[in-house]
Amino acid sequence: MVRLSRSEWKAGYFKKLEKHLSEFDKCFIVNVDNVRSKQMQQIRMALRGNAELVLGKNTLMRKVIQKQMNQDSNLEKILPHIRDNVGFVFTNGDLSEVRKTIENNRVEAPAKAGAIAPCDVVVPAQNTGLGPEKTAFFQALSIPTKIARGAIEIINDVHLVRKDEKVGMSEATLLGMLKIHPFSYGLVIKQIFDQGCVYDPAVLDITPEMIIEKFAAAVRNIACLSLALDYTTLCSLPHVFANGFKNLLAISLMTDYSFKEAEKIKEFMEDPSIFT
């Protein structure tokens, strides 16, 4: 295979990213920290047919996007999010399905000293199977232990590492001794670009049922406020009509005046037994 010169590779990269920005109207902006080449290849294979993964230097990606902004000014919204170690997952398919594929392709990893913890690490109470000679190591980490059946037993759950803090050498060593792989790495979705809009991936968790529930709650609130202020709005109209009918019904029951909608109720009030 002929190795391309840097200028040829750069020209090819520009052409590829320009093509993707033109052909796809949706993309995930993903962080690729701690994702090794083998795992990246597996992710590409899993996405094949539904999405395209494009990586590259931030400076190159910015240049291509700035050029493409002449054709689509909405691409400017992506620029603030091109920082740190990021890439793009382009798709014209269902965003939820592609996100599921991305999230399913994570791999477990051991805790390494000096790494920033992506999550809290809690070591559960357990018999470690380690000999009593390791007791001093646990004491140095202030982990309460006892000897049971000739092995060290951790008495209580221990919050060993906190999210976003560096993993210490001792903590990494202990997790290795206990054969605990507390972390998992893969593409992390930071933002979504969707037909000119940029939004948080949490938006994909919103279901139609949740939207209906929120809308109904908002309508109820507006109706309550309208009734309290005696200011009629579209939301309060059903209540206004209902209250008006109740008032007319009350007048009808207290007088000889009647109307069609009140007749059955008046009959029931005069003789409930006829409805049994």
Helix/strand layout:
Elements: H1 6-23, E1 26-31, H2 37-47, E2 52-54, H3 58-68, E3 86-91, H4 95-104, E4 107-109, E5 121-123, E6 126-127, H5 135-140, E7 145-148, E8 151-154, E9 158-161, H6 169-177, E10 183-185, E11 188-194, E12 197-199, H7 208-229, H8 237-254, H9 260-270
Helix pairs in contact: 1-3
Q: Summed up, what is this model?
A:
By secondary structure, the chain is α+β, with helices and mostly antiparallel strands. The chain contains nine helices and twelve strands.
Structure, explained:
With 276 residues, the chain is α+β, with helices and mostly antiparallel strands. The chain folds into three domains: 6-106 and 186-205, Ribosomal protein L10, N-terminal RNA-binding domain (Alpha-Beta Plaits); 121-183, Alpha-Beta Complex (Molybdopterin biosynthesis moea protein, domain 2); 209-275, no CATH class. A hairpin with a 2-residue loop joins strand 7 (145-148) and strand 8. The strands form four sheets. The protein has a five-stranded antiparallel sheet, with helices on both faces. The radius of gyration is 32 Å and the shape is flat. It has helices at residues 6-23, 37-47, 58-68, 95-104, 135-140, 169-177, 208-229, 237-254, 260-270; strands at residues 26-31, 52-54, 86-91, 107-109, 121-123, 126-127, 145-148, 151-154, 158-161, 183-185, 188-194, 197-199. Helix 1 (6-23) packs across helix 3. The chain contains nine helices and twelve strands.
